[in-house]
Write a structure and sequence with these properties.
The chain is mainly beta and 135 residues long. The chain has one domain. 13% of the residues lie in helices and 42% in strands. Strands 2, 3, 4, 5, 6 and 7 form a six-stranded mixed sheet that branches. The protein has a two-stranded antiparallel sheet with strand order 1-8. Strand 4 and strand 5 form a beta hairpin. It starts with a strand and ends in an 18-residue tail after the last helix.
Amino acid sequence: MMIIDIRKLNAQKKYRGTLEFEYDPPEELMSIPFVKFSSPVKVEAAYELFADDSLELVGKIRYAIEGKCSRCLKETADEVEGELNAFFEPTKDYEDYGYTNGVINLKEAIDDAIMASMPFSLTCGEDPEEIRFSE
């Protein structure tokens, strides 16, 4: 459920609630060489809809990555968890996300949360001093 319909929430008087869904992120979001997403992104968040139709979304994202260790190129994997904090307004502010026609698309906010949570590298956990390369 990458969409939140503000009009529907107002009509149902659901001013607070939770969301849970999975999202297959585009591979272009991966910034670590030789690494890929190995699971969908799991999104768990709570929302609050305010009287001016702005909406705050707070929660967590979780996903798995796999690929080559950034130090020794051994195959490895890791679980990543990040924060999802987004504020949506009917008119876009320079700091917040905007939406039109009463419908919020969460893709940009989730992609931003993925990028913010992305580690700089994927390592296998071995001590780099112990890694020996054959000559």
